[in-house]
Amino acid sequence: MKNNNTVRQQKKSFRSILKQIKQTKFADYTGASSLDETEKFPELFAKYSDVVDIMNHEQLISILRKITQDATSNDVDLINKKGLIGNEKFENFAHTRRGYIRPLDKVSLQQIETIEEYISYVCKQYKITRKSSDQTFYMFDHASIQYYNGADLADMRALQLANIPWYRKKPLPVLKDILPAGQSHTQCLHAMLDQLEKKGKNITALVASARQIVELSLLYSQRRGEFATFKNLLPNLRVWVNDTGFYSVNEKLIESLFVGLDVKKVDIYNSITGALALQEDVKKAGVLTLQTDAGVFYEFVPVEFVDSKGKVLQSAKRYHAGSVEPNREYVMAVSNQAGLLSITTSDVVRVVSQNPLQIVYLRRAQSLNLAKENLHTYLVDKVIAALNKVLESYHIVIRDYMVGYDSYEKRHIWALELNKSPELIDEKILASIVNRIHKMLLQNSRMYNRAMDTNDLNPPRMHMLPLGGLAIFEKPKGVHGVDLSEDASVVMRYAENNINKVFQAANVKIL
Predict the structure, then answer these.
(1) Handedness of CA 119, 123, 128, 129 (dihedral sign)
(2) Topology of domain 377-504, per CATH?
(3) Nearby residues of 5 by Cβ (< 8 Å), 6 or more positions away
């Protein structure tokens, strides 16, 4: 894998993007069209930062509607208005994690070829020989590709697969066989499992998030009528590419799924903004090298300038590859060849090194912070991963979780999904789990501890759910781990639709 001269590559990408969008109405509105892309980079970036704000999808669409004075068109028709953000009509739109749609440029569509090359690189590093009949399988959440007004709308992975040139070998799944699953995530999972059961012997590489693997394992076990490992489903699997997601909370469960298989795990990060990072050193799990030579420009905003909903504050400081500081946490923003300028990924990363530009993916930017407690998924994942190691001797695993905030009770409301029915577990153990999570959060978070100490936050209440309890219906768009709805309504919906046991943590103080 080649990725040298990070700063020079980023300067080149930045100038290229500015030159490409110069004649667009969006560039005129922001002031980016007035910039001289041949100017020295430090001065150019400073001027750019003054005129172009970092924005999320809602802010982008709001600006585009102001420019066009169009309050009624759908997002596809709006974005494809002539000369608005691009010089050509976009033919591919991908769904964001929150259910919006965003145009994909050619760079993003072709990134699956980079991932295929990366898998070959990983196999060479591990001395794994792949035959011509061996296949890679890509998992994604929604199967259908919808056609609207000259454009295809789908999950990014589905669009990438659909746009692979005819003369190249196409990875799995076979799109035409899963399209009938439509927009249902559950039906898409069923369709993918159908293909895995038919073609599993030829699959040697699996590209999927930890969450997708856990969901797949639950469905596979339901079909078999017992807990089932992947040894029979994917007998020749050698490489798992952990696709854009945190792993540790599911580590023990996934290890049990791969029992009897010699599977090597590597990590990647891929966003519909065009951001792509790969674990180039197979011995350094989670350390990802951003691909800075692919026509994408990265910006970094310190997390202290991001609110609890993931929105970047207007006063935010902004850094580029040449000025970013190692060992600090940032929210990444991206500008790309599609004409999107400084769009936030809403992902928090820790920068490891500047050249090459390496990061560790931590979490989504959203957090629970109404009591100034700053409870986020990275912290919770670490706590639950540590607790799962203790629970291993009891044959108990916390498989998944969701936590929200009840403003009336001033406490967090949790739903914890266990690997077995809570009715089969001693209540003393369940109560201990609740108290242990609360105590570990107090020990590991000054803000959580302070909120408890000042009585702005009361001890949490936790609903213990059986296996599959957080998969009985599809989660709202964008919800994973943290429930930002009013008074934890999503968490309560899961609790009310499950047989569950409820426990409240003791009022522990950490001195």
Answers:
(1) positive
(2) GMP Synthetase; Chain A, domain 3 (3.30.300)
(3) 355
Pairing between β-strand 264-270 and β-strand 398-406 as defined by DSSP bridges: unpaired
Which residues are bridge partners to 122 per DSSP? none
- Residue holding tokens 């490489």? 239
Q: Indicate whether 356 pLDDT > 50.
A: yes
More confident residue, 249 or 377: 377
Determine the pLDDT at residue 419: 87
Q: Would you say how long the chain is, in residues?
A: 511
Predicted pLDDT at 501: 86
pLDDT of 131 over the 80 cut: yes
Helix axes 377-391, 427-444, angle to 10 degrees: 140
Q: Is-contact 366 345, C-beta < 8 A?
A: no
Q: Give the pLDDT mean for 131-158.
A: 92
d(CA 322, CA 324): 6
- What tens digit of pLDDT does each residue of 331-345 get? 999 999 888 999 999
Is-contact 315 305, C-beta < 8 A?
yes
CA-CA distance, 155 to 175, in Å (whole number)?
12
- Residues 411, 458 contacting (CB under 8 angstroms): yes
pLDDT at 511: 39
Residue 211, token pair as written in the block: 């969450």
- Among 153-167, 223-237, 467-481, the least confident range: 467-481
Q: List the end-to-end C-alpha distance of the chain, in Å, as a whole number.
A: 49
The CA distance from 152 to 137, in Å, is 22
Q: What is the pTM of this model?
A: 0.89
- pLDDT tens digits, 90-110: 999 998 877 788 999 888 999
The CATH 3.30.300 portion of the chain extends over: 377-504
**Nearest 10 degrees: Cα torsion 304, 308, 314, 317:** 20
Question: SS3 string of 424-491?
Answer: HCCHHHHHHHHHHHHHHHHHHCHHHHHHHHCCCCEEEEEEEECCCCCCCCCCCCCCECECCCHHHHHH
**pLDDT of the residue at 98:** 75
**CB–CB of 61/84 below 8 Å?**
no
Cβ(437)–Cβ(384) below 8 Å: yes
Would the pLDDT of 1 be above 70? no
- Compute the chain's Rg from CA coordinates: 23
The two counts, helices (H) then strands (E), for the chain are 16, 18
Q: For residue range 380-393, list pLDDT tens digits in order.
A: 989 998 999 899 89
Tokens 């979490």, residue located: 363
